[in-house]
Amino acid sequence: MAIWIIGTYIHDEFETFPYLFFNAMRGSGKSRMLRLIAELSHNGELLGSMSEAALFRTAKGRTLCIDEFEKVGSQEKQGLRELLNAAYKKGSKIKRMKKMKEGYEVEEFEVYSSIVMANIWGMEEVLSDRCITIIIEKSGRPEITKLIENFSNDSQIKKIKNDINDVVCSLCSIISIRKIEKEWNSYILDKYYTTLHTYTTQTTLDIHTTLNQDKISLFNKMDDAGIDGRNLELSFPIFMIANLLNSFDPILKTLKDIMIEKKLEDITESKDVQVFDFVSRQELLKNYVSMIKLTNQFRDFLGLEG
């Protein structure tokens, strides 16, 4: 979570940035967590609700912490949900007509922003796919639960904010996300495309040969984690910040565990589709195939270990 908060200060450097979603029962401290994040993050604001218009008109450059975000999957929240489905990625824009003295003109709003959400009942499936989900359990520690919140005047919170600003200034002087993204893509193309197709462009060779050993080691660890697709999009900014703060290995393990859990949930929710897809890819065989062999092949198809 600390890495994510730091990321809100350099959010615009990334092409994508994950949402945080806290799922917890009543009295578990999710509202307190959102207030703390709003206090520490870049231009953070705690909101009890969010409308479609408020999101696209005010989100740019802020960290929105939306509490009690229930019924997000309902029909009346469809417009807001569609905006949230797009706002994790840079370049998503909304156009609205603005009435002028003489007719109308088009107003354009960019919705890309840092967003935290919390509720009790869980998140709609498509929106959940853009989130790093954290489940909060009710604490039994009185030294925490009996404290009165006063984040805005807390000396420790102020010190943390100063420390974050110092870290961000350091990151801004050394970070070049666009270059790292290009290096990563070249690394992947060089590793997989040339292996599969024995074809290498001069650009790929030039960039790959300029990678130092530390960068190659970093990319190898990321690749070996088996995170891809949108999960990689969401994880990439966190990986880059963690690496610069010398916290890469524990963050990699945490995100890998989260993504494995998410993948298992996706499989559970769409078993019929997965089985149909697996069967449709099998070759027509005349011989008997054991159930154990089919089961193992299906597990390999799903990318499950063991």
UniProtKB/TrEMBL annotation:
InterPro entries, per database record: P-loop_NTPase (IPR027417)
UniProt cross-references to SUPFAM superfamilies, sorted A to Z: P-loop containing nucleoside triphosphate hydrolases
Protein name: DUF3631 domain-containing protein
